[in-house]
Request: fold
Amino acid sequence: MSVSVKLSAGSNFPTMSANTLDGNTIALGRTHHDAIWQMVVVYRGQHCPLCTKFLNRLEEFKTRLLKIGLDIVAVSADSRAQLEAHKEKLTTSFPIAYGLTQVQMQQLGLYISIPRSEQETDHDFAEPGLFVVNRVGVIQVIDISNNPFCRPDLEALVSGLEWISDPDNDYPIRGTLAY
Reply:
């Protein structure tokens, strides 16, 4: 059994970046434009139909998230060619990056799986993870899973983010007492 170190709410998101199909490098966990938060969604890759559904469903919430100053980026360990093929099934307009390394997966405390066969994929991949990081690089929300079946309900997540983004609610980062 291997040891997996998990990130803590209230800790700094690790400095890392990944590539996008337009040839740019995007900083993960760092806000862009006028955003006050960034949501980093780690997905398994093109081989996962549940990931495709999740990303497409997340697109439906993009306007609400932008309204509260939150931008979205998704990333997987897929290759450029795999992401290009996957884009045909995606209806997303937020940035999607590729090439997440095993070291980066470990830095994020993600569960990592080996493919069941060559038909699934040709590389180890991260199981789902979602991080909401504030403008100073501190993790506000963490959700990780060891399989594709356990993910946050997007309506509940976005409603919660809308609530905690309201300064009148003065909602602190929760779950900071990690042992």
Q: What stands out?
A: The radius of gyration is 16 Å. The beta strands are 16-20, 25-28, 37-42, 70-75, 96-98, 112-113, 125-126, 129-134, 139-144. The mean pLDDT is 93.
